[in-house]
Amino acid sequence: MSDIQTSMRAKVLTLENMLRSMPQMELDTKHYFAQGMYCRALELKKGWTIVGKVHKAEHFFILAKGKLAVTVGDEVTVLEAPRVLVSGPGVKRAGHALEDCLCLNIHRTDKVELDEIEEELIEPDPESMYDSGNRLKYNIEVIE
Question: 103: how many CB neighbours lie within 10 A of its CB?
Answer without folding.
Answer: 25
